[in-house]
Amino acid sequence: MSAARPVWRQSRARVVRQDDHGAGHRWLELEVKSPFVPPSPGQFVQLRLPSAASPVLLPRPMSVAGVARARGALRMGFLYAPVGTGTLALAGLGAGSEVEVLGPLGRGFPLEHPGTPVLLAGGRGVAPLLFAADVLARRTRRGRAPRPAVLLFGARGRAQLVGLEAAHRRLAALGGRLHLCTDDGSLGPRCDVVHLLGRVAPGLAGPLVLHACGPHAMLKAVALWALARGVPAFLAMESMMACGTGVCRGCPLPRSAGARAACDPATEPSLHGNREWAMCCAEGPVFAAEDLDWERIE
Amino acid sequence: MSSRRAAPPAPARHPVPVGAVDLAVRIGPLRLRNPVLTASGTFGYGDEYAHVVDVKALGGVVTKTLTLEPRSGNPPGRIVETAGGMLNSIGLENVGLERFRREKLPRLRALGATVVASLGGETPAELERLLDVLGHQRGIAGFELNFSCPNVARGGARYWAVPRRLERTLARLRPLTKKALIAKLSPDVTSIGDLARACEQGGADAVTACNTFVGMAVDLTRLRSRLGRACGGLSGPAIKPLALARCHEAARAVRIPVIGSGGIMDARDALEYLAVGASAVQVGTATFLQPDAALRVIAGLRAELAARGIDSVREWSGVLCGEPLGEKPAAPAASRRRTR
To answer: Do A9-105 and A116-296 show the same overall fold?
Structure first.
């Protein structure tokens, strides 16, 4: 078996909007010239600033937080925190600035998976799940979503629940419920997302399917919760990357014993992984809980 | 092909039309349509970027290093960005000889790429077995022997950085193929010139100068290496001045062509390598920034040479190689160099 031909493209994009989003976060909107295949929730793009505008060498993988069509062009939204040299430079770009994008890359959330979709977000990990809620809301309007989704959203404190208003709006459109929690108890119960899941899950119409994005420690807890209960779960992972396309082999994640046994290196698409490692960029970034060795993930 | 010249071309020439610039070069028995190849490990097996890069237009595609058996590579972290560069610790992950021959080679043939297969071995015997199988395969134009991987425990840069071992190994490999044999050398040696000479003596058609530099980065929070292994290989603009000097040293040491590699981001970088004695260049890390980086270098080279009034890249290649830069003119022997 060989992988389907990649669909990603290299393209120029223009900043149409960039503003403060609270708690040190930014909302960035880029307009891309076609041909550019619209990303789906969980997919990412490699974003590169012109050399003159950026002190960093490599492009930055950015999870897409929303997609819209405007006057024939494609608009993509990103929610990020300027914490490193690359994202700080990105935060300095005003409307009209040009950047380069490569995408869409990787495999996103399988939102068509049967069951009640439970979206789990930790902090700014909410970005691709806002996008997922958009897509599910669209399907609900068209009568194609089986059940309304719920979003469980946790962060350190109230301020770190970034994009909370957007989450409210989307869940309302979806006819679904938003559940919040914080580590410091400043909004919602004082607990983490996995404990919140334990409280909320019994009240939901099963079967459930989990889609999660957040810090690896949270994703690991979600994966172990789901594996212990036989609930399908899909986790959006992170890694340092160079190319973002599977070529450089720079972003391996350890496969579980089951996935190793099931992996036939002779037929595994070569851009994906090998028997031991799965490449985060090409095979992920969204992985099924049972496919990764959570004990070896940091 | 004309010889590499010791004297710089006369200044203030009139520009020539861009379309009139001849970029063809010869590397031993291998004729390349232009002197820009992809560096091993940065362009997959040659077909992964084919939907965005016309691989036929490249001087050549050097594949990811192939080993007899598939290798799964090193544990994470494998990539660390540093000032102006990146460290990698991939560890020769590859699909292995059989799958390359069965699956990748037919695709490369269909794409019409000029394929240089990179081969890696822990011993001379392993390289012999690889060449036994691939030495006469249709669709492979030449071989680059990876004598310089910094990221493997056995058969890496340190093992191969012994002139006599290189010479004897090449002498064993030479009869196994009529195609170009290129030796890729490590920069982390006392004298890359000595290694290049040993390769020439052993029968290599060319040497590549050079692979990545061994480097480290420390995670101060966890107090350990930021890579899965202690060290990795540094590439990117950060190493260009260092690698350029290794290229110059290698070019002055041998009469066979030298392929320059290390931090080439644009055509002007390539021009520097060619000037100090490279007959061709490889573009590596730049491809991770822009998959079509090598094509941009080719277009830029044509324009840069045209603007200088030079209608053949072979005329530019080696203009600064004949004498030690910044020193008194060398013995004339060094200037009687030829591009085979």
So the answer is: no
